[in-house]
Design goal:
heterodimer, A: 302 residues, alpha/beta, eight-stranded parallel sheet, 9 helices, 21% strand, B: 280 residues, seven-stranded mixed sheet, 6 helices
Chain lengths: 302, 280
């Protein structure tokens, strides 16, 4: 049985990745999850300099999901390379770093530094996080902004470049095409959906930031629809995510046209959800008599 | 404060469900690994149902352990959906638990020190476990527990503390039991007497934020060197990865802090040195 897939130049032993911001840099959960069993580790959003993050409360539970407005608290790319990257070199699992910035040059510079570091396989451009005032989602909601960031990162690195798309747009396919035209090797989608929650008794917003990104099973139908639409329109590999908690959720994304999947909020519910998804995809394939996971991609009928 | 990673994910059977005070419940769960590994101040993250709503786990501090029987207890106020579901579970039901998690209280090594524990409301939960551990390590005569509640009927664990053999002082806001006033006023009085006798005192606290803020202030004013507090926070992951449950912390111990950073309650805490926190 073949579970391995390729995303650009990255060869993964299975199609299951971690979603950025839900798995730290890998080390944090290495006592509960065998990192060697993962297809790839996607490291939390990393900027040129440390970011403090947003005021709290930063999270709010919602029906079958949660809102977060962390604001990409991170210690910066140099700290990542010096303190966190060495640990992941002990594992036979590709490391992809989610990159954030307030301007185009920041994205490119982070990409350059990661390119020069040993042990990074790919870069995921985050132009879709909804919780930062400057940069970030502002780029991912216009085709011009998307193209600018993707071109700059593409020019700064020979690593595999993945562009993470925002669902908070009128037409996700337009953004996907703009990213592909600007040279991205692959696409990942979806980032969180912009939302809010109110405490009726306190008459207050539940998040200090007022708005936050919705994730969890609640967003799965939206994510699945967008993956399917984008898969119809582009030829690059797609990493599907949004509400995946178990293997059958993952299979749905593959059938919709994804080449790989990522587990995010699911890790909060079950810390070892990623590994359970890997094992579950294999048993699904066995039951269905499928030898190669790549046969699943786009395999949905109407 | 230490943070050893010996956490596990386990399905734990509930073997006890008791209402110990109005809408305060104690659940006893079986899991020998957690019962052995948990340290005072640490918490467990409980998935109260095998469902998507509520989706996230609920953090509960460890209230008591019995390593020989392989059990541990939680003590909680029924305040929301998660605690209601847990309360309504039956003996014999199982829940998924991740733990033990987070930092624990540093019990100190000096045999000549006095240990003063300040518990407010449901903050009594981890203080009970701590009192037991301090008793075993340093002797019960070295331990004083100050328990605060709104009123006498809401007092928690008073009988258990007496059974431990520690010194127990009680304060109620309405004066229906013990000292009439805030437990922090009681702390100030008690510190005054121990310190005037030249007895070095360590302070430990868990309770509502305004109470712990006052505990920290009293300790600073009385130059208490070691003051540890255990914070409560809603959490998404409980594992240190989502950065959701943060509080403002400072690397230096000066009174005002401009260069604070957001520190995670779940893995940098829940137990912090009071001097490390920015009290707002």
């Amino acid at each position: 049985m073949n579970l391995s897939v390729e995303i650009g130049k990255i060869r993964m032993k299975n199609p299951v990745m971690t979603a950025s911001g839900t798995f730290g840099s890998g080390q944090e959960l290495s006592d509960l999850v065998d990192l060697n069993k993962l297809g790839a580790i996607v490291v939390k959003g990393t900027a040129l300099k440390p970011w403090k993050g947003n005021p709290y409360p930063r999270t709010a539970e919602t029906p079958a999901g949660m809102l977060n407005a962390i604001g990409l608290q991170n210690d910066g790319v140099d700290d990542f390379i010096e303190k966190k990257l060495p640990f992941s070199r002990n594992f036979d699992t590709p490391v992809i770093v989610n990159v954030v910035g307030q301007n185009v040059e920041d994205y490119a510079e982070v990409a350059r530094r990661l390119d020069a570091a040993e042990g990074v396989s790919g870069i995921e451009i985050n132009i879709s996080c909804p919780n930062v005032k400057e940069g970030c989602m502002a780029f991912g909601t216009t085709t011009r902004g998307t193209a600018e960031v993707v071109s700059a990162v593409r020019a700064a690195t020979s690593l595999t470049v993945i562009t993470k798309l925002s669902p908070n747009v009128t037409d996700v396919v337009e953004m996907a095409k703009a990213a592909v035209d600007a040279g991205t090797d692959a696409l990942s989608l979806i980032n969180t959906l912009l939302g809010t929650a109110i405490d009726p008794w306190k008459r207050k917003f539940k998040l200090a930031n007022i708005t936050g990104g919705l994730s969890g099973p609640a967003v799965k139908p939206v994510a699945l629809r967008m993956v399917w639409q984008v898969a119809q329109a582009v030829d690059v590999p797609i990493i599907g995510m949004g509400g995946i908690v178990n293997a059958l959720d993952a299979v749905e994304f593959l059938l919709a046209g994804a080449d790989a999947v990522a587990v995010g909020t699911g890790t909060f519910v079950n810390p070892a959800a990623t590994v359970a998804v890997v094992d579950g995809i294999a048993s699904y394939m066995e039951k269905m008599g499928i030898d190669d996971v790549r046969e699943l991609t786009g395999g949905v009928g109407s | 404060m230490s943070n050893d990673k010996n956490r596990i994910v386990a399905d734990c059977e509930i073997i006890g469900q008791i209402e110990v005070a109005p809408h305060i419940f104690r659940s006893v769960l079986v899991e020998p690994t957690i019962a052995k590994a948990a340290k005072p101040g640490q918490f467990v993250n409980v998935r109260v149902c095998d469902c998507y709503d509520p989706l996230l786990r609920r953090p509960f501090s460890v209230h008591a352990v019995d390593p020989e029987k392989g059990t541990f207890s939680l003590l909680y106020d029924v305040v929301g959906r998660g605690t209601k579901i847990l309360r309504d579970m039956h003996v014999g039901d199982k829940v998924s638990v991740v733990g033990p998690l987070g930092s624990s209280f540093d019990l100190g090594d000096d045999p000549n020190v006095h240990h003063m524990l300040v518990a407010g409301g449901c903050g009594t939960a981890p203080i009970h476990f701590l009192s037991d551990a301090l008793c075993h390590k340093h002797g019960c005569d070295r331990v004083t527990v100050l328990v605060g509640a709104k009123t006498g009927t809401a007092l928690l664990c008073q009988a258990e503390f007496v059974a431990h053999g520690v010194n127990v002082e009680v304060a109620t806001d309405d004066g229906s039991f013990g000292f009439n006033g805030l437990v922090t006023e009681l702390l100030d009085n008690c510190l005054k007497s121990t310190l005037s006798l030249g007895i070095n005192t360590r302070v430990y606290s868990c309770g509502p934020m305004p109470m712990m803020r006052e505990v920290a202030r009293v300790c600073r004013e009385r130059n208490v060197d070691s003051c540890q507090v255990s914070l409560e926070s809603a959490m998404a992951c409980g594992l240190g990865v989502c950065m959701g449950c943060v509080t403002k912390a400072c690397d230096h111990h000066e009174e005002s802090c401009e260069d604070w950073r957001y520190s995670r309650v779940c893995t940098d805490g829940p137990v912090f040195d009071a001097k490390e926190l920015v009290w707002e």
